[in-house]
## 1
Amino acid sequence: MPGEILHIDIKKLAKIDGVGHRMHGDRRQAERFIRTSLEEWAYAQPYEHSSQRSYMLKHFLDFYNNHRHHHGINATPARRCEQRLGR
């Protein structure tokens, strides 16, 4: 329903349609991810149904991990992992 409140249980997030996001780091990073996901995915637009929100989660996570520049690490998370692995 449009305007409904969304509760994100970060442990259950990985179980939504097989999409997941592993949290590494400290509580501040987890809280920042939750805040960003609420602003840029969950409440970025009104969804008619929860299934639409779940569908858009896949796209948000791809954007978040592979295309969105993160100022704290000066890269995307995917690129940062590649750097740490020496690729």
## 2
Amino acid sequence: MTPTPTCSWCARTHTGGPERCLVGVLLVCGGRDYADRARVWQVLDRTARRVEITAVRHGAATGADSLAGEWAVARGYTPDPCPADWYPARLGYTSAPIRYSLEPDNELTR
């Protein structure tokens, strides 16, 4: 059996070129009315051949988000739904600007 080579670019052991050095959470977002399941799955399958996916993050909404969640479960990836907090009761009527300003920090606290 031939050993898997160590990548000269990232020093990890894997086959393929530098495109296989991409590792991480795949973020999928799209329209709530998007319903082309075959296209979503085709694009995600192609992406999975090039990227080592650790989880599939989506907004847990209908449409593209739910299709990505279905794909993750079917392909054995960890789904990571992150529904938006659209309720102004918690943040007041300025919830959108506050929510968007907090978005980068959310990644650090996961």
## 3
Amino acid sequence: MRDLEPFMRESRELLGRGASVEEVLARLRYNGCEVIDSIKVLTEVAGMDLDTAKRTVHFSETWSDRLGAHEAFHERAEEAARQEATEEDVDQGKP
């Protein structure tokens, strides 16, 4: 697992100097952080809950080029979960 402490430290400093969350996300991405890293940093340094941090990152300008891929992934995951639930119902004899 990647050590995010240096990114957290820098992000705290940026926010402390009045940088926007978008500026922090841009810096994180520039420094090689991925979406999941950015979410973790925001939960720690910006005091966001997990759901808010996820939405903030996914709908940010910084990560806008990945939004379509993220949405497609989540749609496939939801469809797989629905299909698995349906198969379990059939296995248990439910209509």
## 4
Amino acid sequence: MTRAEFELQLHTLRALGASSEGGGGLLERGFLPNSKRGTAHYFGDKAVDTFLAVNRLSQIIRAHECCPEGYYLHCGGRVLTIFSCSHYCEMRNKAAVALVDEGGGKLSILQIDTRSNHL
């Protein structure tokens, strides 16, 4: 994913938080179909709010989406995307890992650039 595609996706996610159409469809619930891949859905603030409330959680940690810095906080910091592979498919992205302290629930993000280890 290029930086432009990443920014466009983030813009779409942010727009979902302020958009809705009648009829109780996906958009009304905070989702947008992923027309690029034909599977899954994009989600916005409304979907995140509902998921967190129903499951009595404070944050979502998700993965498997390349981020230029290895991680990205969105939906007001309530969703953390982690990507643990730097230089994915010849891109110049960094990698990151999330560390959660079991006792206090503190979340730390460790950012890694493996450029010096790249063969």
